[in-house]
Amino acid sequence: MLTLTKRSYRGETDLEAIVNLWEACEAVDQLEQWTTVSELERDFNDPSFDKQRDLQLWEDETGKLIASATLWHPLGELTDGYLGFRVHPDVRGRTLEGEIINWGEERLRELAKEQGVTSVKLRCSSRDNRFDRIAILQENGFSADRYFLTMERSLEEPLPQPQIPAGFTVRSVIPEKDAEAWVEMHNQSFIDHWNHQDLALEEYKHWRSNPDYRPELDLVAIAPDGTFASYCYSAIYPEDNKRSGRQEGWVNTLGTRRGFRRLGLGKAMLLSGMQKLLAAGMNLAKIGVDYDNPNGARQLYESVGFRKVYTWVSYYKQI
Description:
Its EC number is 2.3.1.-. The chain is an alpha+beta fold.
């Protein structure tokens, strides 16, 4: 009989144990999802995250950490929350996953009550080949509602030259100077996308303070009238590359605001971002995309050589 103790986060002393839990899960799941103490610190210091209320840990009778769960939610209006959890492979498939989901539901109800919201969705995701996790989600009332592709493209193959529309200028972002304009552009670019939630200025500033952030990989296209019209924000994660043995970079976010679409800006910014990754020594570019993106993002990526690697499925449960 497995005896479990649920508890809240106790601070930095828990970080190494959470890293070890991720390692144990990755050894079995092979999702290329690792973490470090410094990455967890940055995540947990996100302005939208309450370390004492949005994080829960489970230990066995020896004090070993065997599960962790987080509930992520926006700083602004609450429409849904994202439940992330990891369970040690040795104790999966019992009742613990159900207990974790129940905790996520209760935490989301608590948030909804605080904000006076009557209907919210609890979300969770799974790789499409994680049949054990999918079965657990379905058994606990979750339904699939969206599919996301992870795609990659070799940077060792020739890259077309970006064709910047006449009158537009492309430069690297200056976070201290451009923060408000960038956030406004981002929110306007994704306002008509599935499940969009506005990015808060505080969150932008938090993530641009990441030591791995490289301004030369953060590009913006500025219209003749000075409007921030399109952008490509790429990133390199040295720790992940060290573990995988690859030199890969991610095109994290690519967007064009309404009123500036169908001008070729999206393709030009994508190619510009890929060139920056190549110049930084990367030989592989990766990107994530909503399969049903309304503006043809998947087709754009395929047109410049990206191909699907795997699929993630978004699940939800009405609370």
